[in-house]
Each structure stands twice: as structure tokens, then as C-alpha cells.
Amino acid sequence: MSGADREDAIAGEAAEWVVRLGDPSAGPAALPAFEAWLASDPRHRPAFERAQAAWSELDLLRERPGDLRKVVPPPPRGGGRKAAWVLALLVPAALAGAYGSGLREAWLADERTGIGETRSFSLPDGTAVDLGAASALAVDYDGETRRVRLLSGEALFTVVPRQGLERRPFVVAAEGGTVTALGTRFAVEDFGDSVRVTAVESRVEVASATPAGAGGPDRRELTAGDALTYGEGRGLGPTTWAGAADATAFTRGLLVFDGLPLRDVVARLNRYRRGRIVVANGAIAGRRVSGVFRVGDLDGAVEAVAEELGVRRIALPLVTVLY
Q: Which residues form a coiled coil (predicted)?
């Protein structure tokens, strides 16, 4: 386990101890185990103190919950527990979002990256792939089609064209849609409930399994600089101008947001930084965010986004809550 992974694990253990000790049903029987945990590593006590401080902030939130009251239930009456009731909801949900699809990807992916890791490699035909952070790709080439599946995250493809002996189309499948290369370079990003496609050079054809009107699958061609977003059950969204620089920024250590919904901004940030960001107020999830951030300073990015939108932010062990 790396040093950063161990620090994350300690923060999680500290959060669990705060919740456990705040439960009256735990009683004094939990204290010997807690004291043994404190003594086992000099990093445990400061981690526990930081977790307690975060819980204290949540106590204030319980007294003045504002928008957060709309999306989480009130604490149990008479229980005497601290505001750990909030984390009892948010932490498991955040961790499920972080790791819930990991087992599926471990089985299906031929290529994958970890949080904050990017990688470049070539497919069997020579097509170059820049795979973004916390992303996974399955390669399903056969005699008829060069097909890959983007299981999560984002990828930039520089495709070997159909010429000479290579006559097979190159197709990327993601979340109920496909992208077929009609040129050489394009990017695909999976946000979980939607997919964004950007034509970087030449042209691509995007098709959604959702029928267009009474006809067959919804299809559209994009030229260089064009982008669109599609979602399962929603079909293809409008074509917008994105420019190639935005879609390729991650290969230069930058994250660029140009009017992107907060929910998608958070999905991308969660792939590049440790810990999870949770949008606890659905009313702000669709608000648009613009900015350019360095991958090495994404805590600053979270601050900047919260300030730009005028929303509150609380940093907790493992989770940052925007509400």
C-alpha cells in the first residue's frame, strides 16, 4: 500500500471511530479497542482529532442545515449522536461511487488506470490511446470491426485510418451509444449517466440506441471542434462548439471546464484526486462551471468551484460535501 493510500485508510478508520464512539449503544466496551488503535500508530491520534473537528462542523450544520435538510433526513430523536448521521449516509454512498464499479472493471478491462494516473499505449492495429485517470477500456477486435468499450472515465483516440490492408471500422461503445471514426482523432468521456464526445480532428459519427422520433437509432456526424452529450434513454443532445484543446487538456496535466454541469465537473475531479466529492443538494448539480485547473492543485479547484457557484463546502475525512 502506498503512503497516500495508507493515509486515506487511516482517515477512514478515524471516521469510523468517531461514528462508533458517538453511538450510545457502543458503551465503554469499545474504549480498550479504541485506545489500542490510538497507540498502534502515531498518525492515528491526529487523524482522529481532525475527524472530530469535521464532526463538530457538522453539528453546526445540524443547527443551521439550510439546503442540506432537503436531501438528508433529520438526526434520530433522543439518540444523542453527533452529526455522524450525515456521514453515515454520505460516506458509504461516496465510497460506493468510488469502488462500486471497480470489481466489474477488474474483470472486463484490458487497460485501466488508477485515481490521478494517466497512461498512453497502442492498440493491436497501432491506434494510439491516451487514457485518463480512473478509466477503463475493453478491447474487442475481431475480423469485422475494431471495437473497444469505454467502461469508465475518458480516453483520447488517434485512430489508424481505414486504408491499405486495414479496412475495418474503428468503433468506441459507451453507455448505450457508439462513436465511429470517420477521421483520425476524437475523445470520449463517460460521466456515468451521460457520455460526451468531441471530434478533435476530421469527423466522427455518434449513434445512440435511443430512437430518433419514430425511426431507428439517433445518429449525427461531428466535425473537428464539435461536441455533444448523449445519455441512455435521452438520445443525442445538441451539437456545440468545444474546440480540441478542451478535450485533450488532460494529456497536458490540465482539466478544462467550459460551462460543464457541476455533476460532470465533480465526476471528473473524482477521477483525478483522492477522496470523494459529493453534491448533497440536487438543486445545484446542474449549475454550469467554467475554469482551467492544474491536476496537481485540485483541492484549490474544489475551493474555486464552490466560490464561483456560491455554495458551501465542508471537507471531511474521505469526503468533501458541496451543498
A: none
- Write out the residue range of the structural domain in which residue 62 sits: 3-86
**Where is pLDDT greater, at 9 or 275?**
275
Q: How many domains are contained in the chain? A: 2
What does the pLDDT read at residue 10? 76
Cβ atoms within 10 Å of 134's Cβ, excluding its own: 25
Q: Residue 94 pLDDT more than 90? A: no
Let me know: does 162 contact 140? Beta carbons within 8 Å: no
The whole-number average pLDDT for the span 210-224 is 76
Output b/e per residue, 90-107; b: 16+ Cβ within 10 A.
bbeebeebbeebeeebee
In this structure, the answer to whether residues 125 and 205 fall within a common structural domain is: yes
Question: Of 250, 280, 310, which residue sits at a domain end?
Answer: 250
At residue 174 the predicted structure's pLDDT band, cuts being 50, 70 and 90, is very high
DSSP string, 65-134: -GGGGGTSPPPPTT----THHHHHHHHHHHHHHHHTTHHHHHHH-SEE--TT--EEEE-TTS-EEEE-TT
Q: Decide which of 215, 250, 285 is a domain's last residue.
A: 250
Distances (CA, A) of 260 to 4, 36, 132: 30, 47, 18
Residue 315 lies in a domain: no
The predicted-structure confidence for 136-166, as pLDDT tens digits, reads as follows 999 999 999 999 999 999 999 999 999 889 9
Q: What is the DSSP letter of 166?
A: B
| 223: its cell numbers | 466535425
CATH number at residue 207: 2.60.120.1440
